[in-house]
């Protein structure tokens, strides 16, 4: 191989190496700018979301939950059966939903039913999104019993949601009588188990029925079940050894 060929080959190799280094440097610079922009965007989104959440949550974030001390107190304790255990609502909710994806803001009883329910009643627990308000209204009108509903939306859409929810609650007479509404604000789309668990956790009766909001109530199963609570099947239900599965016909 001549000296000229070797020199030309070296020049080509050096040029290829230079191009490769330039591509790597340029790509890394672009990716660095993208990462910086993404961090700034997420920071601004989180700040806006926290501010919007705070506007909605201000009515509940400082509340305290009270539990009476157990009447079966050990002899060596100085506590009395009338003493109350105090815990902030924020701490309780953070533990109750510790396995869920965060950020997550749960606001129990954003709307609270005016009626007082018996403990052996049956609360329908369900989850509702913005586009299912119409069928939710139909469910409430048909059931005429306690309902615990989780309403979910993203923090960025909270104002439109609250306006629509207010219109729904005030335009359906049975809503304010029978329905407890719990808000769940999170940027994630499909935490279905978290939403269902919130509705079940805040149900105010001993028995609950998990129901998809799209299902229509076509039989008076509530009265039939309550009438059988003193029978054998009712005793098994009370002991927590059985669950009833309702066939879906409509």
Estimate the helix proportion, in percent.
40-55%
For the largest beta sheet, what order do the strands appear in spatially?
A: 3-6-5-4-7
Structural class, please? alpha/beta
Number of strands: 7
Order of helices and strands: HEEHEEHEHHEHEHH
The oligomerization state is single chain
CATH topology of the domain at 104-238: Rossmann fold
What's the main sheet like?
5 strands, mixed
CATH-derived architecture of the domain at 104-238: 3-Layer(aba) Sandwich
What is the CATH first-level class name of the domain at 104-238? Alpha Beta
In angstroms, what separates the terminal alpha carbons? 86 Å
Strand content: 15-25%
Total helical elements: 8
Average pLDDT over all residues:
76
Rg, please? 29 Å
* Poorly predicted spans: 40-55, 57-61
Q: Report the principal-axis shape.
A: elongated
At a glance:
This protein is α/β, with parallel strands linked by helices and 250 residues long. It is built from eight helices and seven strands. Helices cover 47% and strands 17% of the residues.
């Amino acid at each position: 191989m001549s000296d000229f060929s070797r020199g030309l080959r070296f020049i080509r190799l050096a040029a290829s190496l230079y191009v490769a280094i330039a591509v790597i440097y340029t790509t890394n610079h672009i990716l660095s700018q993208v990462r910086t922009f993404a961090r700034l965007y997420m920071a601004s989104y989180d700040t806006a979301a926290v501010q919007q959440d705070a506007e909605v949550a201000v009515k509940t974030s400082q509340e305290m939950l009270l539990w009476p001390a157990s009447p079966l107190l050990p002899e060596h304790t100085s506590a009395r059966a009338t003493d109350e255990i105090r815990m902030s609502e924020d701490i309780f909710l953070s533990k109750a939903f510790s396995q869920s994806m965060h950020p997550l803001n749960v606001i129990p009883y954003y709307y609270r039913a005016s009626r007082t329910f018996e403990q052996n009643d049956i609360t329908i627990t369900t989850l509702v999104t913005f586009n299912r308000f119409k069928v939710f209204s139909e469910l409430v009108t048909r059931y005429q019993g306690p309902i615990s509903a989780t309403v979910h939306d993203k923090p960025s859409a909270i104002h439109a949601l609250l306006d629509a929810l207010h219109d729904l609650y005030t335009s359906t007479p049975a809503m304010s009588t029978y329905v407890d509404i719990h808000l769940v604000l999170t940027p994630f789309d499909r935490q279905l188990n978290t939403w269902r668990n919130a509705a079940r956790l805040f149900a105010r009766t001993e028995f609950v029925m998990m129901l998809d909001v799209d299902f229509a109530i076509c039989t008076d199963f509530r009265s039939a079940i309550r009438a059988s609570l003193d029978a054998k099947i009712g005793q098994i239900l009370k002991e927590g050894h059985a669950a009833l599965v309702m066939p879906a016909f409509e």
